[in-house]
Amino acid sequence: MKRILPIVLSAVILSSCGSVTKQMQRGNYDQVIQKSAKKLMRKPSAKYAEAMDRAYKLANERDLERVFFLEKEDNPDYYDELFARYASLKGRQSKVRTVTPLTVDGKTYSYEYVDYDAKIVESKNKAAEEFYQNGKKLMNNALSKQDFREAYYQLRRADEYGGHNFPNIELMIHDARMAGISRVIVVPMNTDPNIGIPQIDLEFLVAMDARALEKSEWIEYHFAHAGPNNDYDYEMFVRVLSINISDNIEKSSKQDYKAKSTTKFDYALDGAGNVMKDTAGNDIKIYKDVMATMVKKEKLKDCAIRGEVEIISLTGQPVGSLAKVPFSASSQFKNVSYDLIGDPEAVEPKILKLTEVEEQQFPTETALVKQAVENAKPIVQGIILDSSRRYIN
Length: 393
What we know:
Elements: H1 4-25, H2 29-42, H3 46-73, H4 79-96, E1 102-104, E2 107-109, H5 117-141, H6 145-161, H7 169-180, E3 182-190, H8 199-206, H9 210-213, E4 219-222, E5 234-245, E6 249-267, E7 285-313, E8 320-342, H10 349-352, H11 365-391
Parallel strand pairs: 3-4, 3-5
Antiparallel strand pairs: 1-2, 5-7, 6-7, 7-8
Helix pairs in contact: 1-2, 1-3, 2-3, 3-4, 4-5, 5-6, 6-7, 8-11
């Protein structure tokens, strides 16, 4: 065990160093710094100190070269990147300062402190102003919902970077949000002329889990008309096209059983009519055969519904029906019960236990349709969400 432990520790160290080396080769310098600093906080190590030092210098060199280019270019499109580069330089410096100055194996690792705050503030303000101007321009010249959505994101960044100081920006963000949303009215209907579905069950068919709807950032679903002043971009019709309900199906079958009773018997009599005795002096009993019949009753009734979800564009291009997606679901009533005719002793206990299941009456058609609708709900919900991803912009 004493020989195995050093080998295991060496393997762990080599594996850890190998990971740092790979990250260095890939240019993931900040990951190297993060890991090395964490190791150095626990225990000084020349390998990790050297890895951190090299990664720190290479990362700063890469960022400063890019900063030099961006400042020379002075392109408003790059103000956000300039801010991010300066923020990265500051964050990296703060990380290495948690473990430096550090002396390992006679070598001291220490770095000159650079104040990046003024550059961070300057580039952040420039980026905020650029986001604000871009957002306003997009709002004023928007030709599509996508333009309003991009304006929303630009104004959100402007508000975040600018410390909420731009005039009327909250109202602008709200307006961009409202203009960028695609509104969908979901209409359930039953077109089967023979069998009706209560309105409450139709509404249940399309009722959506709020958590599922929240995943659609730019789609707003309405399950009832919000009023004449509300314009919809899409209609989604959830139609039940047909409902098929079977007749009441009843079947019965019988199974006969015969066994020796354990409680019913006659005494064995001799020629004189006296009860015979065995060698131990006990009365001799002759146990009777007992018989019974198990009557199995089966009841079956099912319902199948077939429908479709149609997505119709009201405002976008193209206008009209975009797709029709079929769906189907079913429900079934099944009841199996048993009646015993005869002596219970003739039947094994596990079979006799089947008689405890009560016979049930056939459900109404309304109840079967309701269950089929409930079974169809998750299928319809999946179609609605999938169709939204495919066809709604």
